[in-house]
Amino acid sequence: MVSRVIPVDDFDLVIFGGTGDLARRKILPGLYRRFLSGQMPEASRIIGAARSDMDSAAWRASIRDAIKEFAGANVQDKASIDGFLERLHYVPVDATGKAGWKELKGLMRKDVVSAFYFSVAPSLFGAIAERLKTHGIAGNASRIVVEKPFGRDLETAKDLNATLAEYFDETQIYRIDHYLGKETVQNLMAVRFANILFEPLWNAQYIDHVQITVAETVGVGGRGAYYDKSGAMRDMVQNHLMQLLCLTAMEPPSHFEPDSVRDEKLKVIRALDPVPSDDIVRGQYREGLDGPSYLEDSENPDSRTESFIAMKVKVSNWRWNGVPFYLRTGKRMKARMSEIVISFKEPPHNIFTEADHPRCNILTIRLQPDEGIDLRMTIKEPGPGGMRFVEVPMDMTFADALGAAAADVPDAYERLIMDVIRGNQTLFMRGDEVEAAWAWTDPLIADWTNKGDRPVSYDAGTAGPEDALILMHRDGRRWREISA
Ligand code: NAP
User: Fold this and answer.
1) Distance (Å, rounded) from C-alpha 35 to C-alpha 71?
2) Is residue 240 annotated as a catalytic residue, yes or no?
């Protein structure tokens, strides 16, 4: 199978924060891979902007190092890297001052797509948006890309939306959640809406429950002070897990286009019930053999911020009546694993009276590691001895099923940046979605904050606190094993 690469229109992409961690680790290596795939038009340009005083040659040298470190061992051809670096320019710009804006304007071309990636702290978004407009650098067709965190509660998210709306129309704003750029997440929509098989069963009549897990092995070391003001709920649930929940639970949109998809996601968020405190487990990792405790990492011995959260969520609508969605995410866990698990009900009547009981069908959408989709079926164990059952996987790990084409699959960031250039907002969050997610999240955070609740401790390298296991056990269900 040959992967199809459709070139995008000629563009100028400005990366504010071009010297920062995200630009070096994700954005520029990703753009380099798109360049290698032939997707970038010959004249397209990438302009780095940050306060650091350097020229384009120095920025290119630093991006060469970043490509070496982060783009992958199989794409280190010197001539290709040189070709890519020729498209890079750098302008020292102070987001909050006067320096650099005239020079930036002088570099921008007319009549090509212009996009501005705000890879800087959210406190700078307003200043940059204002200057882009007042200096006449961005026009009505320009696009801006903003990174998470998009606010830390409903009020700050509303403020941020209002600030950006002063200068840009909603159709120009691309709020990035890189989970939406993952191949499997889009495949979730393909599985649901491009096959007749699942959608008739995708409801409370046939689905017992859904589990969404995002487990990380790393702790918060290095950014402990930042994380301590956030926690797993704000950092992961309000955005990434919420988006996965929406795509799993939403009604079929009328078209695969931005507002049709985002309207349906918004309806899911608005249908979420408040979660009683009994259905939430918050945890903090203890000191382990290979690392310090959360309290040491955060350098706050009295921190009540959670590095783990598990919760049982209800989507209050006709389709999902009585179907719990169990969400769980945490740091310093047993393995790095992200997946959505759809657990179907048992067949209504067991005709095999003398036999083993058939197992429930389980559909797993794996985001990492080994992106893929797996459906567990019950079949008869081969050989004599009557009807004994065995559970077998129908496994579609992309790397196995699609061979070389899977190896060329773009990483989430590169795919999403190309969507920005194409002007396709389908995989980006709309302002009202973000606000609705905070409106659901805020009272839950306020509840445990007001009560002064402390998270329970859990051992690093495990599946999280015992209480999270009990959250499922008391419903007669079990979490899936966390494994790499
Ligand atoms: P970072 O490493 O601290 O980089 C910040 C960038 O902003 C630097 O290039 C810095 O360059 C520039 N900057 C700071 N003040 C400026 C000013 N007044 N004018 C112009 N440029 C200025 O941060 P990061 O990790 O790349 O994160 C950037 C954004 O992405 C943040 O909003 C973060 O929350 C978000 N994000 C990051 C990651 C990640 O993996 N790193 C993941 C998800 C989201 P100078 O010092 O040279 O000005």
Assistant:
1) 12
2) yes
Cβ–ligand 1 contact at 52 (below 6 Å): yes
| Alpha carbon distance 410, 407 (integer Å) | 8
Which residue, by CA, sits nearest to atom 22 of ligand 1?
50
Ligand 1 touching residue 66 (CB < 6 A):
no
Q: Whose CA is nearest to atom 3 of ligand 1?
A: 20
Report the chain's mean pLDDT, rounded to a whole number.
Answer: 93
CA distance 62 to 52: 12
Q: What is the largest CA-CA distance in the chain?
A: 82
Helix axes 258-270, 242-249, angle to 10 degrees: 100
Write phi, then psi, for 278 (nearest 5 degrees): -65, -20
**Residue 96, ligand 1, Cβ within 6 A:** yes
d(CA 142, CA 108): 12
Indicate the SS3 state at residue 55. coil
Report pLDDT digits (tens) over 432-472.
999 999 999 999 999 999 999 999 999 999 999 999 999 99
Looking at ligand 1, which atom is closest to the CA of residue 50? 21
Asked whether 48 lines ligand 1 (CB < 6 A), one says no
Give the closest residue to 144 by CA, choosing from 413, 426, 423, 432. 423
Tell whether ligand 1 has an atom less than 6 A from the beta carbon of residue 127: no
Query: Looking up tokens 């498209």, which residue turns up?
Result: 87
Q: Is the CB of 119 under 6 A from ligand 1?
A: yes
DSSP β-ladder status, 280-285 and 456-458: parallel
- Closest residue to atom 21 of ligand 1, CA basis: 50
CA distance 338 to 366: 6
Instruction: Round to the nearest angstrom and report the end-to-end CA distance of the chain.
Output: 28
Residue 70 per-residue DSSP state? H
Sheet strands (E) in 43-159: 45-50, 88-92, 113-118, 143-146
The residue contributing the CA closest to ligand 1 atom 4 is: 20
Express each pLDDT in 335-373 by its tens digit.
999 999 999 999 888 888 666 776 789 999 999 888 888
Q: Of residues 89, 178, 209, 240, which has the active-site annotation?
A: 240
Q: Please give the distance, rounded to the nearest whole angstrom, from the Cα atom of residue 20 to the centre of ligand 1.
A: 5
Q: What is the pLDDT of residues 219-247, one digit of tens each?
A: 998 889 999 999 999 999 999 999 999 99
Structural tokens at position 312? 């049982």
Q: In what order do the strands lie in the sheet with 143-146?
A: 88-92, 45-50, 11-16, 113-118, 143-146, 173-175
